[in-house]
Write a structure and sequence with these properties.
Number of helices: 2
Distance between the termini: 29 Å
Helix content: 40-55%
Mean pLDDT: 89
Low-confidence stretches: none
Order of helices and strands: EHEH
Shape: flat
Structural class: alpha+beta
Number of strands: 2
Largest sheet: 2 strands, parallel
Strand order of the largest sheet: 1-2
Length: 71
């Protein structure tokens, strides 16, 4: 995980069974932002507005940082 040098962000539902793993990831890579989607689980996270907004914002932010240009 330390070798990964591309922009990352973790989006996880508060009710996702994999959240424990994300919590551990934060101890190894505290520089990787994590956003917890309240009330979401592993299967329905992508249907929450917070998820879609976070993905859109991440793409916009990283398009600027990797190309020097905005969308």
């Amino acid at each position: 995980l330390q070798a990964i040098r591309v922009p990352m962000k973790v989006l996880i539902g508060s009710d996702d069974d994999l959240k424990r793993r994300v919590d551990r990831l934060q101890t190894v890579r505290p520089d990787v932002p994590v956003q917890v989607i309240p009330g979401a689980n592993h299967l329905n996270t992508m249907f929450h507005k917070e998820f879609r907004d976070a993905v859109s914002q991440w793409i916009e932010d990283n398009a600027k940082s990797t190309t020097g240009k905005g969308p």
